[in-house]
Amino acid sequence: xxxxxxxxxxxxxxxxxxxxxxxxxxxxxxxxxxxxxxxxxxxxxxxxxxxxxxxxxxxxxxxxxxxxxxxxxxxxxxxxxxxxxxxxxxxxxxxxxxxxxxxxxxxxxxxxxxxxxxxxxxxxxxxxxxxxxxxxxxxxxxxxxxxxxxxxxxxxxxxxxxxxxxxxxxxxxxxxxxxxxxxxxxxxxxxxxxxxxxxxxxxxxxxxxxxxxxxxxxxxxxxxxxxxxxxxxxxxxxxxxxxxxxxxxxxxxxxxxxxxxxxxxxxxxxxxxxxxxxxxxxxxxxxxxxxxxxxxxxxxxxxxxxxxxxxxxxxxxxxxxxxxxxxxxxxxxxxxxxxx
Amino acid sequence: xxxxxxxxxxxxxxxxxxxxxxxxxxxxxxxxxxxxxxxxxxxxxxxxxxxxxxxxxxxxxxxxxxxxxxxxxxxxxxxxxxxxxxxxxxxxxxxxxxxxxxxxxxxxx
Lengths: 340, 109
Hints:
Chain A is built from 13 helices and nine strands. Chain A has one domain (about 5-335): Aldolase class I (TIM Barrel). In chain A, α8 packs across α9. By secondary structure, chain A is α/β, with parallel strands linked by helices. The longest helix of chain A is centred in the N-terminal third of the chain and has 16 residues, at about 5-20. In chain A, strands 6-5-4-3-2-1-7-8-9 form a nine-stranded mixed β-sheet, with helices on both faces. Chain B has one domain (about 20-100): SH3 type barrels. Chain B is about 20% helix and about 30% strand. Chain B is built from two helices and five strands; from the N terminus they run αβββββα. Chain B has helices at about 20-30, 95-100, and strands at about 35-40, 45-50, 60-65, 70-75, 75-80. The longest helix of chain B is centred in the N-terminal third of the chain and has 10 residues, at about 20-30. The interface of A and B includes residues 53, 207 and 212 of A.
């Protein structure tokens, strides 16, 4: 696994503190969406289908920082939209790093080389570019509905690595993925020098154009077992080994929808990053007034039935790691042996 | 490809087979602007970005294209028409594949 020790320590102490305080529900990663605008229109994405006047809006840096403060999570993920299109992205990242938040800037990397050349960012252990890569050239370009994106992203990754930045990749997988090609993809990303990879099955957003290629649970288990069986020592994943085991069907977790709360132009999204069933004006209201029991697999909510996405299950895996001896042991064994 | 039918152009009459709460829910789910007709006869165009039917006084919030956010109580709403373009409609994966195979440049947002 490739999460740096300092980050692991920060997360571990944060989780233990929450548990010692008896806090049953706590956030782990704030999903901060400063804008919905994007320079791609990917088939599996349900985040950008809005009228033009909504796409033109964005949060102010002050609104973003207030949300970070209010939430208190140790990690901040900045998806969108494409965050490099956010006019104040340099200042926002600088402010978050100054607050010692671990920042994952999720980008398709089309603008990354340009922004790096402008000197907008400084390398830091707190900042990681999380580059969207859904596979090798053919698969990625098909997923993002534009040819040439893979090559541009690879070039940007090389440049960011060369400049000393932390770079990770995030891959959303859909039905039809070839496990052999994904293994080849893992080799390729490692050879590029990325710090670690993140993988997750896609979620069938009701607003996403492509509804037929989302993975159902059993099929997802089969795919991840085939893909991650006998993982190569060189592969590094920037996520909990228990979450990967969950994807393979080796762990049985329930969703933690409050683990990755989402803040955007509309407020605090209820109940999670994927479902959009309303907005709360404050983080406190989100936590107190959301009917959490109506979500997750056990609830029987059909929208949650096949969901295995990291924003709901990675927090469960992390809580399990630091909240039980068995979880801790499983995570240590997987980390030390490299076996999943 | 989404099987959902777009509500673009829908002008429901509240009380005739559909309640105000249901229409507001549809408006919240709709990825386009709507026109809200208020009890005092105003017509407000905007994007409904949230609503709270469980509040003491149920309300919806919308962004007007010009920039302002407005809060309207359900009690103030007489009708909602789905007048804006549905941004989620007509952008199917199949359409992209078709364009790709025809050699046309795939569109970005």
